[in-house]
Automatic annotation (TrEMBL):
This is Uncharacterized protein. It is a multi-pass membrane protein. The lineage of its organism: Eukaryota, Viridiplantae, Streptophyta, Embryophyta, Tracheophyta. InterPro entries: MFS_trans_sf, POT_fam. Keywords: Membrane, Transmembrane, Transmembrane helix. GO terms for cellular component: membrane. The chain crosses the membrane at residues 12-30, 51-68, 88-111, 132-155, 175-199. GO terms for molecular function: transmembrane transporter activity.
Length: 224
């Protein structure tokens, strides 16, 4: 994009926001209709399948992040900027795929969990259940911070180099992303086990048209 054009790294999160918005639109307008013709489910896919797709995409994000970071570190070594922590001559757009995929995963997971709790929670705790679906993201952020500190401390024991250092070029974030990929795989396998024994709460759907509008309105309903 030119040597004088610089993109602030933090601005990449805007691509995640755009990806979420676009993914939700495409999901409601096209994905549901396409899958409905195959599955016969008025929602296209079941509530748990929607969450499962989100978990798979979330895991693939870490795989892509691992590959991109491995590539970045390889270029850093080739240009001798590991020790001094200097800028790596590589476009920041190499990070774009994973930020877009994060948005796609969130479109399935965030909305999917809200819809799941809204339709499957007991009538008396329906609003509380929908709120709990968002509380999980706060808990996730705390656990993520704890995991970063834990990994940094453990990998630096006994004089070892460590995975997470102040010098990003000397760090091994690729190892960390690989660890996150394994954790997400274990999480997905546990999800499959839970799904195997889960029994859906019976629902009465008045019409397909109501179902199409319902899931989109659930999110707005829980915001009010």
């Amino acid at each position: 994009m030119g040597p004088h054009f610089k993109i602030p790294p933090a601005s990449l999160t805007s691509f995640t926001t755009l990806s979420i918005a676009l993914s939700i639109i495409l999901y409601d307008r096209y994905f549901v209709r396409l899958m409905r013709s195959w599955t016969g489910n008025p929602r296209g896919i079941s509530l748990l399948q929607r969450l499962g797709v989100g978990l798979v995409l979330d895991g693939l994000v870490m795989v892509v992040a691992f590959l991109m970071e491995k590539k970045r570190l390889s270029i850093a070594r080739e240009h001798g900027v590991v020790a001094n922590g200097g800028p790596v001559p590589i476009t920041i757009l190499i990070l774009l795929p994973q930020f877009v995929m994060i948005g796609m995963a969130e479109a399935f997971l965030i909305v999917g969990k809200i819809v799941f709790f809204y339709h499957q929670a007991h009538e008396g705790i329906k609003r509380l259940g929908s709120s709990l679906s968002l509380v999980t993201y706060g808990v996730r952020n705390f656990l993520s911070s704890f995991l970063v500190i834990l990994v940094a401390n453990i990998t630096q024991r006994n004089g070892r180099k460590g995975w997470i250092l102040n010098n990003q070029n000397a760090s091994h974030l690729d190892y960390y992303y690989r660890l996150l990929s394994i954790i997400r795989l274990c999480n997905f396998l546990f999800f499959l086990i839970v799904c195997r024994f889960y029994l859906y709460k019976p629902e009465v759907l008045e019409s397909q048209e109501e179902t199409d509008k319902g899931d989109s309105q659930v999110v707005e309903h829980n915001r009010s």
